[in-house]
Structure formats: structure tokens, C-alpha cells
Amino acid sequence: MTEDDVRRAAGEGQPEAGGEPFAPEYYALERELTFFLRRARSESAEMAREVHPELEPAAYGLLVRLEASGPQRATALAWYFGVGKGTISRQLSALERLGLVRRRPDPLDGRAALLELTEEGGARVARVRRLRRSEYARRLGSWERGEIAELARLLHRLNADGEDAG
């Protein structure tokens, strides 16, 4: 099967409902992002297990956010990830149970709590992130540094445009 056969089978170049066909670049983008996201989900699950065998993959992102941004309220975390407070509460409770996160009173509002990494949580997340960056360096070893910077810039732009649209 040729690449053109694969494109036709995938509907590339066919008119969308009520309109013109999308340019081939959009099909290529969809295909590559789908593959990239599938791989990222798998790697996120592996990283979560590296932090703690009982850690859910979705909670790994909370740890990374707390490491990068420092103590946060649960509501700020829920807003950042675009999930409900109940979802965040369940994940944070699990992280507390595992000894990776702790609550402390918010000095600006004694009724509220800030969540922060414990020393153990911070050490585990830092170790896993170092391993991930080493893996990126291995995978991208043949790339020029400028290409890596350009990829990071374009991904940032894609993420920022997604935030603006949401």
C-alpha cells in the first residue's frame, strides 16, 4: 500500500461535511499528535510508577505542577488542570496518603490550605524528571540544539493557542 493509498483510506483530501478538504498538513498533524499523545500517556504512567508504585498517572501532573510552581490551593490546581474540585480532592488525598504532599494553612487566609510537596515527594519527582530529561537527550541526540529549541517554542505556542481557545 502506497502513502497515497493510506491517505485516501484515511479520508485525506476528501471534502469535509459541507466544505472544502483540509490541507494534507492537518491530517499529518492529527496523525502525529495522536501518536505523540498515546506515547505520552504511556510514559506518564511509567513515570508515575517510578515516583511511587501506587501513584495514579493523572496525579503525577499534580506533583510536577507543585514542584514547578510551589504551594497552591486545591482550587488553583483544579483550575489549572481544568477539572472539578472533587477530582482534585481525590487525587490530593491519595498523594497525602502516600506521603508525597502535605497541607498547611494559607498565611493569607487561615480558612484555606496550601498544598505542597513533602521532602520525600520533591526528591522523588526531581529524580524522575531528571530521568525523563535524560531520555529526551538520548532520543534527540542527533538533533541540533536549535531544532530542540524550535520544537519547544512551537509546542509552547500550540499550548498557548489552546488556552486562548478554551
List the helices and strands and how they pair.
Blueprint: H1 3-9, H2 24-51, H3 57-69, H4 74-81, H5 85-97, E1 101-106, E2 109-117, H6 119-139, H7 145-165
Antiparallel strand pairs: 1-2
Helix pairs in contact: 2-3, 3-6, 4-5
3D architecture notes:
With 166 residues, this protein is mainly alpha-helical. The chain contains seven helices and two strands. The protein has helices at 3-9, 24-51, 57-69, 74-81, 85-97, 119-139, 145-165, and strands at residues 101-106, 109-117. The chain is globular. The mean pLDDT is 87.
Helix content: 55-70%
Distance between the termini: 39 Å
State the order of secondary-structure elements, H for helix, E for strand: HHHHHEEHH
Query: Could you tell me the strand content as a percent range?
Result: 5-15%
Shape: globular
Largest sheet: 2 strands, antiparallel
Brief descriptors of the model:
single chain, 166 residues, mainly alpha, two-stranded antiparallel sheet, 7 helices, 2 strands, 67% helix, globular
Summarize the structure.
This protein is mainly alpha-helical and 166 residues long. It has seven helices and two strands; from the N terminus they run H-H-H-H-H-E-E-H-H.
